[in-house]
Amino acid sequence: MPSILLVPIPPVTMERITSLRLPLQSIFDTDTVIDASIHLDIIAALDMYRNQYNSSILLASLKERFPQHEGKILGVSEVDFFVPVLTYVFGEAQLNGTVAVVSVYRLDDTLYGLPENPRRLNERLVKEAVHELGHTFGLYHCLDYDCVMHSSTTVEDIDIKRDNFCPACSRAVKRHLHARS
User: Fold this and answer.
1) Is pLDDT above 80 for 94?
2) Per the CB 3.0–4.6 Å rule, which of 39, 40, 82, 110 could disulfide with 52?
């Protein structure tokens, strides 16, 4: 399979990006590379009324910026994402497409008045990255509560599920990979 390209969408620390590289490489059994140059003008996605960033605009910008990339592209940021029909999202992806985005913003316990917990934040980020990339492999939300593809509307939902696919979703990703090779 072609690689997964990790793209920082400022503001985001390189620690966040590098923390995803090895887990994604292991889960998807593919090379995961980081493109650390600045590519996107995130201000184009800002909705000043909501003080949030439209994740759909960021998806389109990533797709436009990397039209020749043959693998999957995951943009990572620390700003608050939304889609017009929802108050917020942890991330968004093109179903059966090439691009996905995730945000660290609502994964951080300090947003909810809790003490900082870097380990839990990183676990949540990995789960959300795998979840959104799963959509790019054509996966819908899974009914298995433990599966990383189960829908999450709160951080507690993210905490409950594993960072990997259930057997059915795993088979679907493998079928998708073999169909493309």
Assistant:
1) yes
2) 82
